[in-house]
Design brief:
The structure is a homodimer. Chain A has five helices and three strands, in the order ααβααββα. With about 150 residues, chain A is mostly helical. The interface between A and B is large, with 64 and 64 residues. Chain A binds a DNA duplex (20 and 20 nucleotides) through helix 3 and helix 4.
Amino acid sequence: MSLQDSQSQSLQDTSKSANCTAMSDVLNRIGDKWSVMVVGILGQNGTLRFNELKRMINGVSQRMLTLTLRNLERDGLVTRTIYPEVPPRVEYQLTELGKTLQKPITALWDWSSANHGSIMDARSIYDARSEALAASEPRKVAYVRG
Amino acid sequence: MSLQDSQSQSLQDTSKSANCTAMSDVLNRIGDKWSVMVVGILGQNGTLRFNELKRMINGVSQRMLTLTLRNLERDGLVTRTIYPEVPPRVEYQLTELGKTLQKPITALWDWSSANHGSIMDARSIYDARSEALAASEPRKVAYVRG
DNA sequence: CGGTATCCATTTGGATACTG
DNA sequence: CAGTATCCAAATGGATACCG
C-alpha cells in the first residue's frame, strides 16, 4: 500500500477488473461529451433552464439534451425542479455529488482547450505520413499483381 | 479576466462555441472509455505490449484496442514502437503530451471509484420512484379513456 | 417552454476468420 | 504476437411532428 501512496489508489490491480468495472460503468454515463458539457456548464453557472442549457451547449439536439439530463438526474448528479407555471419553467442544477465531479471535469476541460492545438498538429503530421505511405503502396501492389 | 482567476479559463463564454468545439473535438477522441482506460493504464505501467494492454483492460476486443491505440497515436498521445523480431513485438507508451493527460484522467478515475457506489444508489432510488409512478399511471389512463 | 414519440441513417463494436 | 478484413446486430443520435 505504501508504494502507491502518491499514485492513484484505483489504478492498482486493474486486471482484477473491479476498478475497471466501476470506471467503465461511470464512464459509460458521464464519459460522453454531452454529459461533460452539462456538468461543466451547470458547474459554472449554478442554475439553468432547459433552453438556456440548449443554447449554451453548441450543437446539442433537444432529444440528446433531454436524455443527458435524465441520466444525470438518475445518477444523482443533477436536480430537476419543475415550477408549475404557464409557460412551464424547469431548472437544473448540480447536486452535491455533481459538484464534486466539477473539479475533475474542469481539469479535463482545461486540458482540452490547452492541448487542442497540439492534437490537431499531431493529426496533420500523422495523416500526411499515412498519405505518403498510401501513395507509395500502389507501386508495390502493381508489382505483386503484374 | 480577473473575475475568473480561480475559475476554469475555458469555461467562460461557452456560448461562443469556440471552447465547446475544442472540448467536443477532444472528447470525441479521448472521451470514450477505451481511450481513458489505455491512457490510465499506460500512465501507470509505463510501457506495455499489445496483449498486455488487452489483458489489463477488461472486456476490450482486439479490434477496439487496435482502433483506440491508432487514434491515440494519431493524436500524439501514444507512441508505437515495432521491434522487427519473430514473433513481432510492439510496445506502447505515453508521449509527453499523453503524460500530461494522465493527471486529469487519474482524477476522473479516482472520482469514479470513489463515487460509483453513490451513483448506483441514486439509480436504485430513481428507478424505484419511476416504477412507482408507472404503476400509478394506468389508472389515470383508464379514467381518461373510459 | 419543455418536453415525448417516432422514424430512420449512421456509427459503433463484437464475433469470426485470416495473415505476416 | 499483433494485427487486418469482413460481416452484421445493436446502439446512437438527428430530424420531425406533436403535446400539456
